[in-house]
Request: fold
Amino acid sequence: MMVRIALAFLLVVLPLGAGAQQFGPAQFPIKADDGDLLTNHSLTADQLAQLERLPGSVVAGNPKGDVTLYQWYDLNCPFCREAARDIDDLVRTDKALRLVFVPYPTLSVQSVEGARIELAVRELVPPQRWLEFRKRIYAGRGTIDGARGLAVVDAMRLDRNKIIEIANADRTTETMKTHAQLGDATKIVATPAYVIQGVAVLGHPGLEPLRKLVRSVRTCKKVVC
Reply:
């Protein structure tokens, strides 16, 4: 099922959140922890360069890590919320991993509101505090929107007025448009999605399959050795 929404004059195709589901061919035999093949495809060198300099992304883990893993996510994607625990474990146990979060608000207007607050927080705090914001906003139940994001801002004693100012700024809108444009160009049609060693993987494979991908890249510079 596809939904469409106008985001700052940009028509964005909005994918549903995804677990281990097929959204196209599997270029490499990458399996989820339930044994299902995950859709995956290679990105071009130009797309990878755009991804590396993407505004609004957050580098977590080791900023000088030997392997980089990008996660594209929507705050209201239920699979993204489930994946958050695995991602936290992955970063905690792999001190050499460079993890980059890419906010990708595609599911609803509420997701866009939440992402605006999230991107504003990113401008004001270091990565560890941003990760605290992320954990707090995922801790509650229900839809994540602007009001819920501001409640976390208040709980963290951040500058509410400054956050609102940045959230409503044109540069924040432009950042989300840039994410949407690159997501469309790279066929990120499901959340969560990952990019590792130039390969986009659609859907969350689970903690151990993610570890296997990272090990493969370290061993042979490929997602599958």
